């Protein structure tokens, strides 16, 4: 029997000038392609309400004022290293909300709601990528769960912040984000700098994984400028975006080979920012390299920052704290049910427990009061 298909080249019957088949060179390593919901459909399915819009808009304005030195409060980005459970995230949000209300005069509290996790090699990539934690990569479900959680958190009156890692995911959730971060692995990426230039929220750029501040200073400068790049619209169509630039960007010190949160490091970082011609606003990440990946050392870092603020330091605009309901971390084993995990414990980086977090926030708030009183 004659072969119906040429294994080397696909020839359309009756058409000698048909488009040449390129399957030998295109998508050769793609295992599957599945449909992705459009941002417009998801936003229609899970719309934002007026109250949540007002909260996001007001918090963005407040953060911008802090960055410009027009508001003497401290920005506090606080919450789990990553989200893996909706109900536990809401339990945490309720605790943080009460604390945020008590300290609203000193702290602009934003809950850390991270859905995407950069990996050094391989591993679980976050709630959007694999929401069921079983390797099924139900990303449409992950996007729905992520947006639903943001709506629930903001409905409590608590603004949310996240890291922007995937270049398409902001179209699904960015309207609910009060503050965003670009991580240490992507700060040097031109695509992420372009993305930040068009985001409607303030954005922090982390120093490089080796501790380089110049990389992040360059990123802040680049994001202030307008750019043109390819992307996806809310309707899911490819388009060319032209941005105006984002003036509400700042540096995040997260440590590197050595910590960089002390007064000398703050001064050195601000000199780099000044030389780059950008605002001297510095946020300190109490975790990662600054804690030498020992989660309880976040308390030591936070207290050092509080002492600097009490002494009158005004260039520190904020802090980041990795915190969950319970301290530490646990391993998730793919294939095991989510119910086997301990509730309220991180499955990525180790976090402070809430019992350790609230006193640290109160110390930081007291430091802002002390600086204000001495002014």
TrEMBL record:
Tell me its EC number(s), please: 2.5.1.54
**InterPro entries for the chain:** Aldolase_TIM (IPR013785), DAHP1/KDSA (IPR006218), DAHP_synth_1 (IPR006219)
Q: A biological process (GO) annotation for this entry?
A: amino acid biosynthetic process
A Gene Ontology term for the protein's cellular component: cytoplasm
Q: Which Pfam families match?
A: DAHP_synth_1
Which UniProt keyword terms apply here? Amino-acid biosynthesis, Aromatic amino acid biosynthesis, Transferase
Q: Where is the DAHP synthetase I/KDSA domain?
A: 65-359
Q: In which pathway does it act?
A: Metabolic intermediate biosynthesis; chorismate biosynthesis; chorismate from D-erythrose 4-phosphate and phosphoenolpyruvate: step 1/7
GO MF entries: 3-deoxy-7-phosphoheptulonate synthase activity; identical protein binding
Q: Does the keyword Calcium apply?
A: no
Q: Give the matching SUPFAM superfamilies.
A: Aldolase (SSF51569)
Q: What catalytic activity does the UniProt entry give for this protein?
A: D-erythrose 4-phosphate + phosphoenolpyruvate + H2O = 7-phospho-2-dehydro-3-deoxy-D-arabino-heptonate + phosphate
Family statement drawn from the similarity comment of this UniProt entry: Belongs to the class-I DAHP synthase family.
Q: What is this protein called?
A: Phospho-2-dehydro-3-deoxyheptonate aldolase
What organism, scientifically named, is this protein from?
Inhella proteolytica
Organism classification: Bacteria, Pseudomonadati, Pseudomonadota, Betaproteobacteria, Burkholderiales
